[in-house]
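Example 5.3 — SIL1 factor
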Amino acid sequence: QAVPAGSHVRLNLHTGEREAKLPDRENAESDTREERRKKRLGKVDVDANSFTSEELKKALAKMKASEKAERKVSFLFLKQCTVQGLKKKFRPIEQLKEEFEKLNMKIETDYEIMVKLISKFNSSASTLEEKVAALYDLEYYVHQV
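Solution (predicted structure tokens):
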């Protein structure tokens, strides 16, 4: 049997029957989904028949125009971001390493760290605990790659 939208439906496990309760009009919790949507949207007319085809065409044309404008702006931005512009914004890794060495900080790339971990693992002087630790650390770096 069809049940009105917003009704409370349950399956009675003792009898095996499905039961439905019609919503109370005074109780706000039992409002139908449509009524809750109308309350949320307020006085906005969301009826699908309220828009004419001309209104929809105009709205679509506005959307297409704004999309073209966004594409044009993003193209101009990409055009400004030339290789020379990027070189001005970012410094090479070698220069950064030199600056950090002046601060008594040594910066290593992931590749350099991975090479050290592999050599530690292959070293006969390393203990079993050091080799296991090197494998765990290596797993972390390989997972990033």
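Remark. The chain has a mean pLDDT of 77.
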